[in-house]
Amino acid sequence: MKPDTCRVVLALCIVLIVAGCNEVGKPAMLPVPAPSLDGLHPHIADHVQAQRERLSDVALRDMDSQEIASAYGAAGQVYNTYGFLDAAEACYLNAQRTGTDDYRWSYYLGQIYREQGQTGAAIRQFQNALQINGDDVPTALSLARLLRETDRAREAAAVLGKILATEPHHAYANYILGQIQLDAGHSATAVQSLQTTLAAQPDATRVHYLLAAAYRDIGDTRRAQIHLRLRGDGQVTYADPLISELTGINRGVQQILEAGTAAFRRGDLISAEKLFRKAITVDPDHSGTDYPGDSALLAEAHHALGLVLVRQGKAKEAEAHYREALRYKPQFVAAHYDIARLQDTVGDNEDAIHHYERVVAIEQRYRDALFRLATGLERTGRCEQALGYLEQMLERYPDNKPAKELQSRCLVARGHKGDH
Description:
The chain is built from 22 helices and 2 strands. It has 420 residues and is mainly α. Residues 5-23 and 284-294 have low confidence and may be disordered.
């Protein structure tokens, strides 16, 4: 080969190598989207900004692969915690690009892809995590659940078999296995698996529904009826240290609420729901955070979760959280009002009236509550009471046309009643 040709080839090789690296020995990294800090609590904004600055240092400092992976992985955990999933994904992928064997980044990516409905990508990440750490039970459970949901029952059962070989009474592994057996028509073996789950977690009342189906299939209608009566919403759970690690990053109920509110405002209901559910799990007396999870904050968290659930069409569950908010803060005007609105929609006039009355007793200038309370009273034939509240309202808002019209109807109804 001629010297000039050799030099051209060598130069091309150097270009190709540099194109794949930021610096010699460093793999090219994906750009990390910068989360908007608008509307965030100052403590959250500081936390996120600190990660931005740390990632900027990665490109400037002489760091080995392990240090680079740790920097991106830690940033990913912070972004993940606060619901900035695009930024978290980029960080975890960059941590993987270093070539270090840390199954956490694959696991977190799997969870992100699962939440986003990218089932195939989630399965691949969970499989990758198990190649690195084959003994991690939460990863195996996550993989088995997705395999079952994508009609790959045989593979799911194989994954569960490895868990049950060492932990035969594992509640969640038996729960998934029981569903696989029920799907396949093996109802008798499903009963055994699901009974094992229930023995390990008696509060997992959701299992009763599956047991009822299994007993019905094998012709035991008596036991089927018993389990139908016992069914509830109690979930089967399992310890997940990596998800707990994410939870531990957040520094108090108030910060979680702010992050959830920011997600809600940008229309990310899934992240908002997760954050608000996280907030309500903080013990009100032993939160151990910068902002203790006192009663008022927990009331706010339950109410905020209720708002998300209403947007998702889950009115009954939302109502339960509104009522739980009142348990922590009995004078919580917004919770009383939102319960009343829900009761209006289902036609429970008495409960709606009760909560509207609580609202106006606490905040007498709440115009909408006054009008809705008067409307409910008029609808149920209590025009005298309605007129009293309408007088309060028109005293403050004399030009309110709907209130004047309702007042006229009540006066007419009272007149008719007097004629009799």
